[in-house]
Amino acid sequence: MSLIPRSNLFDIDRFFGDSWPQAYESRSSSFFAPRVDIKEANNHYEITAELPGVAKENIHIHVKDGVLTLEAETSKEDKEEKDGKVIRQERRYGKYMRSFNLGAEIQEEDIKASFKDGILKLEAPKLAPKAPERRRISVD
Questions:
Q1: Which candidate in 3, 22, 59, 112 could, as Cys together with 45 as Cys, close a disulfide (CB 3.0–4.6 Å)?
Q2: C-alpha–C-alpha distance, residues 72 and 56, integer Å
Q3: Which pairs count as long-range contacts for 133-138, CB under 8 Å and 24+ apart, including other chains?
Q4: What is the pLDDT of residue 59?
Q5: Is the dihedral of CA 68, 41, 57, 91 positive or negative?
Q6: What percent of the chain shows pLDDT beyond 70?
Q7: Which of these ranges, 2-11, 54-63, 119-128, has the smallest mean pLDDT?
Q8: Which of the listed ranges 22-31, 37-46, 77-86 does the model predict with the highest average pLDDT?
Q9: What is the average pLDDT score of the chain?
Q10: What pLDDT does 3 receive?
């Protein structure tokens, strides 16, 4: 498979190679890596990412130099007042980011995305396989 996720906090291979506190602290910053599923079909790869609480307009996907990057932001404020006084106020803010090395067999210009109920689906079509060419080589 040529569609390879780039390393992040949730990579199981890195989890066993690093101790949890170091892995969490060194990569936590202000970004969260969304959980993804990657499936291969005959003519495309499908990436499904969990983005709970994110609005469609806050999702940004781009491709550059063979790397597909998914970025999203979410913010929520929950304020409770009683008799005109604030009793409780909670804020939640987060950024999601995940990148994938596409490899040479993906048709980058035809990648499609859809978003419904907090689930982002990307479809990355494979390039049509080229039939081996036979060409004549002249002898000088």
A1: 3
A2: 9
A3: none
A4: 95
A5: negative
A6: 78
A7: 2-11
A8: 37-46
A9: 78
A10: 58
Contact of 72 with 36, CB cutoff 8 Å: no
Closest CA to 114 of 68, 42, 43, 61: 61
Compute the distance between CA of residue 8 and CA of residue 33 in angstroms, rounded to an integer: 7
β-pairing verdict for 112-116 and 119-125: antiparallel
Cα within 13 Å of Cα(118), Cβ side: 7
- CA distances 124 to 47, 60, 65, 77, Å, are 8, 16, 15, 35
Do the Cβ atoms of 36 and 68 come closer than 8 Å? no
pLDDT (0 to 100) of residue 111: 94
State the Rg of the chain over Cα.
21
Instruction: Name all domains of the chain by residue range, CATH numbers in brackets.
Output: 4-125 (2.60.40.790)
Would you say 77 and 43 are in contact if contact means Cβ atoms under 8 Å apart?
A: no
Give the number of residues written for the chain: 140
pTM, full prediction? 0.65
